[in-house]
Every structure is written in structure tokens, then in C-alpha cells.
Amino acid sequence: MPGQQTAGRVDDTNLIRAAQQGNHRAFEELIRQYDQAVLRLALHLTGSPDDAQDIYQEAFLKAYKSVGNFRFECSFYTWIYRIVTNLCLDHLRKRQVRKEESAVVSDSEGDEFSLLDTVSDDRAAHNPERDLMRKELGRKIGKALTRLTERERMVFELKHYQGLKLRTIGEMLNTTEETAKNTLFRATQKLRTSLAEMR
Amino acid sequence: MNCEWVKDNAFLYAYDELPDDQRFEFEQHVNRCPNCAEEVKALKGLREVMSAAPMLEPSPSFLAESRMKLQEQLEIAQQERGWKRWFFDPFAMLSSMKFSPALAAAILIFGFVGGAGVAYKMASNRAGGHPDGGHVIFTPAPSTEASIAGIRDIQKDPNTNKVSIKYDTLQPQTAEGDLNDAKIQQLLLYAARNNTNTGVRLNAVSLSGEQANDAKVRDALKASLRYDTNPGVRMKALEALTPYIKDDATVRDVVLEVLLHDNNGGVRSLALQTLQPVSADSAVRMELQYLADKDKDQAIKRQAQAMLATLPEID
Questions:
Q1: Is residue B146 part of a domain?
Q2: Residue with the larger pLDDT of the pair B251 and B118
Q3: N-term to C-term CA, chain A
Q4: Which end of chain A is more exposed for a tag (fewer CB within 10 A), N or C?
Q5: What is the DSSP string of B178-240?
Q6: DSSP states along B255-294
Q7: pTM reported for the whole predicted model
């Protein structure tokens, strides 16, 4: 999970300083530690490989252009995610997620599939009724998520799907832990209500 | 700790966000209070339900494609940054201007792309083209020993001596396709900008020149003319752009820059020749006059003077 510290995580400080002095290789090595997680976040949030790629590119280009302004006041991970989450919020504000098909996304070949279809489940393969139920549930989940505001969606995404701590989420969204908590509270309440209505 | 507080913070408990001291009291209360226990159960249930929609994991080929596109954009950003410095201090910058050698990223990306089972072999249209008339042929790459391109992560099991190491491997691939094919062109443009092997860049620029009617290809040729470290490659790019000197003002501008600032006499001389068809243009004429009067390279000076002599007088 991206929020956990791993024993093998490279010390970013030297890489950051080198990148700030114009060392392109250092910058590339720096972002390589995070780029897969960033792409994963963008893909799950947007449901579109094209949009996810756009956010991914824009985020790291912004990071490249402004790495000189990084002052080590937070971790590089938080700093990068701050850029990414802002771009994701912009995306959510601009686009209306399709309510009926919010559980349907396009893969990198452009074919649509339900989120639940990506889950390997031997039991479902032998139980069409259960498979159908899971697809229906996926549809409901997608629809419920569309009822959240952009910030609620973002906080929920970062907490539930990315596993980050609320304190970290607050830093990434340039707000307080308390605000992130309140946002998560509202998000969970709305989701409970939405899913209950859909039963 | 009362029911109101418990219900207001049950979501924090469900998401493991309660501090340890509060967590103990919370659990004590829930064990005694059926209503609050029901609330906690509902929120844990919500968490389970929402987890039924799994995380989409980017496929290796999608990640590789994203990295390749990002690499291109970073190269452009790096070159633009260098160009801005070049504009203000061209002579100092020319000596240090060079391509960012993106070899590690390029081969890593190619390895990822190859991991999807795709292989390419370069072929020229002049060799007869492809029987399919433009489709890329995918042929299995010969099996080669993969070498390590980078270490991603190292984890040790705290209870045993077992170590888990995640690493990327490099696998050479080849591509074969028609020169008009978009994928082939993309590879060519990438090779022209991102390869440390001069011969490869030369071939890439030469082949790209056959498609210079495409604006994107022309942009790549202009970049090669401005920034490639090898004068032979710059001259090849210049040759490819020559047919567009009259109709494309941006080509003319780049050639003028090169004429003023390139550190290689051969490139500058070729640039002068390239400008012959547009030597009557006022901007070109001004530059010719400057070179004829003040250039330190005597050969360039004489060449500029000769070109000016052929131009009609201005009234």
C-alpha cells in the first residue's frame, strides 16, 4: 500500500537535491518510486485510461517544473500526491461521471468492462447468479460514489482505496486532519444512505 | 464516553483512525451497548461493500506506455529549459547542450512493452515495404538472457532470513513495419531524441526525413537540428528540412538560429546553403549582412558575402 513505509524505500533527500540542481536522471529515479501508485490512483478515480494518463503526465511535468520550489517541509510523497490530488479534483469538477455506468470503465485497449469483472473469482465463474449480483453491486457502488462531492470522493478514495491516514490526506489536500475527518464522515453517511436506497 | 460520541466516531473506528486510548474505551462501550454495536456493524459492512469494487491495477503495458509518453514530454521540457538558457547565453550553453541520455528508461520501457508479447524489427520502405501495405509485424523476439534494469524494492521477512526483491528486467526487442505506420514513426521519433548511439539517431533522423511532411516529424527534426550533440545528425536533420525552408517559417527560424549559434563550421555552412532559396527575405538578408561583416569564421564570412553579392540592391 502506498501509505506504508517500506524498508527498501530509497532516501529521497539526495535525489531531490540532485534533481533540483538539474540532474535529470535523479528526477527520473525519484518519480519512478511513485509513478505506478499515481497512475493507479488516477485510473481508479477517473475510470478512464486516457484521463488517467493525462493526469499522470501533467502531475509529473508539474513536479519537474517546480521541484526547485520543494522546501522539504513535507515528504516528497506528500508533495507529489498534493499535485496529483489537485489535478484529480479538477478532473472531477470538469467531468460528470456517468451515473448508470459509473462502475464501467475502459481498459487500455478501449474495451469497456465492469469494475467487478477485473476480480478473479473462481467461485463466481461457477456461479452465474453470484456473478450477476456482484456486477449489480458494482453498478450501485459506482452510482453511490457519484453522489459525493469532489472533495468527499477524493477523501474517500484516498482513505478507503489508497489506505492513507487522515493526517496524510489532510496534508495532501492542503487542509487539516480534522477537516479530512469531517469530510470522510459526510462521505460515509452519504454512501450508507445511497446504498440503502438502492436495496 | 456516551452513545452520541460513539456514533459520531464509529466511522473512525471502522477505518482504524481512532487513537489507541480512545479505541479501548470505544470497544468497551460497544460491548455494552447494542445500538452502538449495530452502528459499528453497519459501518464495517459499508467498508466491506465498498471494497467489492476492487482497485484497478494498471497493466504493465499501460504503465510502460504512460512512462514512454512522459519521458517524451520530459525530454521536451528539458530541451525547452535548455533552449531558454541558450537564447540568453548561446555560446556558453552550446558547449554543454546535450540530449538527456534516456537509455535506461527507454530500454526499461521497451522491456515492458516487450513483456506484452510484442516484438518489432525496423525496416525501410525503400527495401520494398511490407507485403501487408503498412501493418506492423509482430515476431517473437529471440530468447536472450534478461539483464537487470533496476531494483524497485527490497523486503525482508522479520521472522526468517527470506528476502524478497522486486526488480525490472531488460529484454531487447525488434520491430518490423511500414515506414508510414504510426507506431514505427513513433519509435523513429523516439530514437532520434533519446538514443545514445549516434548511428541509431542518424538512421532515425534519416528515415524520419522521408515523412517530414508530417508536422510532428518536422518538429522532431527541428529539435534534432537544434540539440543533437553530433554534427552529422544535425546536418542530416538540416537536409531533411531543406525542402520546407520556403513554406515553413519555423524551419527558416531554426536554420537561422543554427547558422548563428552552431559550434560546427560544416553545419553552419550547410545552413547557409539551405537559406539560398530565401536569401532575399529581409530577416535572412540581415543575418547574411551580419555574417559577412563580423563572423569570425572566414569561410562563413566569404560564403555570406558571396550570397549577398547575388542579391539585388535594396532601394
A1: no
A2: B251
A3: 32
A4: C
A5: -TT-HHHHHHHHHHHHH-S-HHHHHHHHHHHHTTTTSHHHHHHHHHHHHH-S-HHHHHHHHHH
A6: HHHHHHH-S-HHHHHHHHHHTGGGTTSHHHHHHHHHHHHH
A7: 0.51
Whether the predicted pLDDT of A72 surpasses 80: yes
CATH number at residue B228: 1.25.10.10
- 3-state SS assignment for residue A176: coil
Task: Suggest the residue from A6, A53, A102, A131 to mutate for an interface test with chain B (most B CBs closer than 10 A).
Answer: A53
Tens digits of per-residue pLDDT, A96-135?
544 433 444 444 444 444 443 433 344 444 577 777 777 7
Which of A7, A24, A181 lies at the smallest CB-CB distance from B154?
Answer: A7
Contact B166, B150 (CB under 8 A): no
User: Would you call B46 and A188 a contact, using CB atoms and an 8 Å cutoff?
Assistant: yes
Q: Are A160 and B50 in contact (CB under 8 A)?
A: yes
Q: Do B155 and A36 touch (CB under 8 A)?
A: no
Interatomic CA distance for residues A135 and A116, integer angstroms: 6
Partners of residue B154 on adjacent β-strands = B165
Q: Which amino acid is at B176?
A: E
Q: Whole domain around residue B46: which residue ranges?
A: 3-50
The answer to whether A60 contacts B46, with C-beta atoms less than 8 Å apart, is no
Q: Which residues of A touch B105 (CB under 8 A)?
A: 28
Q: Which domains does chain A have, with CATH numbers?
A: 11-95 (1.10.1740.10)
Among the partner-chain residues A25, A64, A195, the one whose CB lies closest to the CB of B77 is A64
> Chains A and B: how many Cβ contacts under 8 Å?
113
Three-class SS of residue A74?
Answer: coil
Which chain B residue is nearest to residue A138, measuring alpha carbons? B53
